[in-house]
Amino acid sequence: MARTTRSTLLAMMLLSAAGADAQRRPRRPPRHAPDAGAPAAPPAPAAPELVSVSVAEADTHLRQIRVYLFTPPAGATGYGLGQLGPGTARVWALLPSCRPPNPDDPREPCPVDRVIFEAVGGGTVHSMDPQGLAPGAESRRVQSFSIPAGTRRVNIKVMGLQARVRYEATVDVERLVDLTAPQGSATPNGFAFDLARYPAR
């Protein structure tokens, strides 16, 4: 009888110790299988594609802000064009002047700082900084561009002061030949534009 009692007590002590040990062990969080039906993360948005406009359309908008694009006469080298080398397309851009601010003149003193031609989809563009038609800060200015073979499209930007984009358009290089020749006459140093035909203000 005493042996049975001791066996029972020993079994009860072992069960009690096992239960206490189980309570002390931290419970593991349940494992969840990945949800096969969860939607995948959306792909990153693609960069917007630049769509070309006709050279005639771009030229019309540019003339509204007093920027005139021309195909230079054959053999012309003025305004830095001769330094740019040959190209499948060559362009002159006639710009307004940049005048000092005048409190009595409400017009913007420098509506156009420069024009930028950028190759789109490969290729390159050679360009010159604006050059004055005559000495003085109030002179009209001309920029020259030469586009070598292999450049199919260019993005044209008209920049104001403080890097403000006033107009932007992408055109096909092969259609730049549609630009008209400038009105005026050749000079020993370049070309004399008939500015009466191309108002600046």
SSE blueprint and pairings:
Blueprint lengths: L1 H23 L30 H10 L3 E3 L18 E7 L18 E7 L5 E2 L3 E2 L8 E7 L5 E7 L5 E8 L11 E4 L2 E4 L8
Provide structural commentary.
The chain has two helices and ten strands, in the order H-H-E-E-E-E-E-E-E-E-E-E. 23% of the residues are buried. The protein has one domain (55-197). It is globular. The chain is of the alpha+beta class and 201 residues long. Strands 1, 2, 4, 5 and 6 form a five-stranded antiparallel beta sheet that branches. Strands 3-7-8 form a three-stranded antiparallel beta sheet, with helices on one face.
- Rg measurement, Å: 38 Å
- Strand pairing plus helix content: what structural class? alpha+beta
Number of domains: 1
What is the averaged pLDDT score?
83
What proportion of the residues form beta strands (DSSP E)? 25-35%
- SSE order, one letter for each helix or strand: HHEEEEEEEEEE
What is the number of helical segments per DSSP (H or I, 4+ residues)? 2
**Low-confidence region ranges:** 1-6
Major sheet characteristics: 5 strands, antiparallel
Shape verdict: globular
Helix content: 10-25%
- Based on DSSP secondary structure assignment, what is the total number of beta strands? 10
| Distance between the first and last residues' Cα | 122 Å
Outline of the structure:
This protein has 201 residues and is of the alpha+beta class. It has helices at 2-24, 55-64, and strands at residues 68-70, 89-95, 114-120, 126-127, 131-132, 141-147, 153-159, 165-172, 184-187, 190-193.
